[in-house]
């Protein structure tokens, strides 16, 4: 069974799906696509349609990623494309008023998405074999495809609120953020305590800045921004106290010396080497020293975005060292 046949076989169950397919593998690709969103994207040319069908489907909104799919282009434009981007496939017909209404709902949403996902329109009169492959008994039907297979679907005319909620659920699983509403939100007022702490940091008063940020966290434990800056400032204070020659003099079994060497490496923008030093301690140390090494490594992880490749790699190495 090829991928097209597999997709067709699965779509009949897709309406009942709720996250049946793990889309996390596509999240990184989605984020890369968003990074390119500022650059003009190439617009796939729509397939020729009869004049009546063109009017029913509606013009493609500027900036939207909308394609009209034929039997000849289905494999590349829908199945293959879904390997790298979410594809929302609409099975519709010009004679079906609910189809036309649903298309008119989806097209502006695709325009707002600005290329984060593609709307693939399939006119079942022009491409009846695609409808047959999906087992469609009526139109309209909307199927979300990712990784070459359906992940969710619904049929029939739906209110805008329900269509939007369905799209939000599917796109959130790929890490695609909600589109800009177009309404300018007022800028939040700066917290004067954070401003004061930042001024201390900018003047080089690390001790004063640390005290200021920690005071904010003490009053507001949920203030993640203040907590993150406090961790970084605390690290800077500690790391600047080490003699850089510790990199050459630290003995393999000397836990404190290896901690200091790791700080120096981090200060020098060499996180992979810093992590490796402490992971080696986790692997070779016993008892309290092993616990201390693991705790220190987890603290250093918190200085970085957990999605950074070197952090992900170090976590794998830590797991191997522990087990």
TrEMBL record:
<comment type="function">
    <text>Participates in various redox reactions through the reversible oxidation of its active center dithiol to a disulfide and catalyzes dithiol-disulfide exchange reactions.</text>
</comment>
<comment type="similarity">
    <text>Belongs to the thioredoxin family.</text>
</comment>
<dbReference type="GO" id="GO:0015035">
    <property type="term" value="F:protein-disulfide reductase activity"/>
</dbReference>
<dbReference type="GO" id="GO:0045454">
    <property type="term" value="P:cell redox homeostasis"/>
</dbReference>
<dbReference type="InterPro" id="IPR013766">
    <property type="entry name" value="Thioredoxin_domain"/>
</dbReference>
<feature type="region of interest" description="Disordered">
    <location>
        <begin position="32"/>
        <end position="57"/>
    </location>
</feature>
<feature type="domain" description="Thioredoxin">
    <location>
        <begin position="41"/>
        <end position="172"/>
    </location>
</feature>
<dbReference type="Pfam" id="PF00085">
    <property type="entry name" value="Thioredoxin"/>
</dbReference>
<dbReference type="InterPro" id="IPR011990">
    <property type="entry name" value="TPR-like_helical_dom_sf"/>
</dbReference>
<keyword id="KW-0676">Redox-active center</keyword>
<dbReference type="Pfam" id="PF14561">
    <property type="entry name" value="TPR_20"/>
</dbReference>
<dbReference type="InterPro" id="IPR036249">
    <property type="entry name" value="Thioredoxin-like_sf"/>
</dbReference>
<dbReference type="GO" id="GO:0006950">
    <property type="term" value="P:response to stress"/>
</dbReference>
<protein>
    <recommendedName>
        <fullName>Thioredoxin domain-containing protein</fullName>
    </recommendedName>
</protein>
<dbReference type="GO" id="GO:0005829">
    <property type="term" value="C:cytosol"/>
</dbReference>
